[in-house]
Amino acid sequence: MSSIGTRTFTGLWSLRVLVLTDSQIDEVQPQAFFSLSFLEKLDLSWNHIKTLPVDFSTSLTALKELRLEHNNLHYISGYSFEYLDNIEKLDLSHNQLVSVGPGVFRGLSRLRQLYLHNNRLSAVQQGSLDMLPGLEVLQLSNNNISQIDTDALAPLYSLAVLVLEGNNLHHLKFKTFISLHTTATHIQLSGNPWSCDCDLHRVFSKILRVRHLHIDDYHNVTCQDPPQLAGASLAWVDSQLCIAETATVLVITVTVLVTVVAAVVMAERNRKRNSGKNWDTESQTQTQSPPS
Ligand SMILES: *[C@@H]1O[C@H](CO)[C@@H](O)[C@H](O)[C@H]1NC(C)=O
Ligand SMILES: *[C@@H]1O[C@H](CO)[C@@H](O)[C@H](O)[C@H]1NC(C)=O
């Protein structure tokens, strides 16, 4: 194992590309990349890095591509990427990230591709994707995401591809996706343990009707629940999911109708009975009234 020490690259200030992939690196010390202010590509993939120093990006203002995939990152400080003003591609896939709090990607206004697949994320939190106006690709597959906050995706005006395949999603809210104000977004949602009910059917059919949203793998979206639908494609069972609900509505409607009709009939009968009584007691008034 090795460590990238403080100011290791001092003097190499004009360096544009630095590849340190598969180099048994397990530690990056503070100011490790000090003075590399022209560096455009840094590849630290396939190492054993557990954390990044808070000042990791201080000199890396020219960096366009940062590769950190296949490391051992559990957590990223809100400051580590602070100065990556020109970053376009950031690969953090195949790490151990459990969450990326609000602030980690804040201000990466040139970022176009963010790879976070094969981590252990459990939610897409509100605020975690703020101020990423240029983000086009967000790869979140093979995490453990069971929740997406309603407004979490709203700031992503340029999002063209959103991959949520292989997560832990049971339900979705339509609001979460309709908040995406893009021209066209392709979404992948298969490989999740969907709870197929009438609600889910409605959400998917609403999304499918929105012109700028495309669920690419809709025919591969399969149910986990209820057990009798396990493995079935949502597209297949789609129209049947609301039958039970429709039946319930029908039963209620019929019951209400029958009650109303019965009430009307009873009322009519009572009226007749009363008018019969009236006929007996006030026959004179009755003869004057017009025939009904
Ligand atoms: C995934 O998230 C659920 C809670 O939603 C948790 O119980 C489970 O342990 C998580 N699995 C992994 C592999 O982290
Ligand atoms: C659906 O799943 C099959 C089998 O896993 C795969 O070959 C196909 O590419 C998938 N289609 C889409 C649109 O993802």
From TrEMBL:
Keyword Repeat: yes
Region (Disordered): 272-292
Bilayer-crossing regions: 247-267
SUPFAM superfamilies given in the database record: L domain-like
Domain of life: Eukaryota
Assigned GO CC terms: plasma membrane
Biased composition, class Polar residues, residue ranges: 276-292
Keywords: Leucine-rich repeat, Membrane, Repeat, Signal, Transmembrane, Transmembrane helix
Signal peptide: 1-23
Entry-linked InterPro entries: Leu-rich_rpt, Leu-rich_rpt_typical-subtyp, LRR_dom_sf, LRR_TM_domain-containing
Name of the molecule in the record: Leucine-rich repeat-containing protein 15
Gene name linked to the record: LOC114439996
